[in-house]
Amino acid sequence: MINTVTHEIIELHRLLQVWFRGENEEPLSGLLAHFAPGYMMVGAAGRVITLEGFEKVLPSLKGSRPGLIMEIFDVKICEIFDGGILAFYREVQTQGEARTERWSTVLFVENAARTQLLWKHLQETFLS
Fold it and tell me: 24, 30, 11, 16: which is closest to 75 by C-alpha?
C-alpha cells in the first residue's frame, strides 16, 4: 500500500509542478481528477482552500512559477481504514534561490470503484 500512496503523492505533485511551470498542455480536468468531491486543504500559511476555490484559481496559476521544483520525501502511512488512508510526507519546493519545506498530512478516500485514491483533505505546516 505504501507504494500506491507514494505514487499518488508524487504523481499529483508532478502534475502541479508542470502546471505551475507552464509546461503542461493537458486540460485542467486531468489534474482535478485526483480530488474527491468536498476536498479541502489548510495551506502551510493557514489559509483554507476548497476544491471549488482551487479549481477557480488554477487557470490563473498556470505558468506562474517557472523553474519550480517540487520534491516529496518521507512518505508514511499513519492509518488504513475501510475506504481510505491517512498519510504523512515532507514536501520541498525550490524555485531559484528560494526554498520552502513543509510537512503534510493527507486523507485519501477510495473512488466508488475502489480503483483510485482521491485527495479528500490536506493539512500543510511549514518547517521552521
Answer: 11
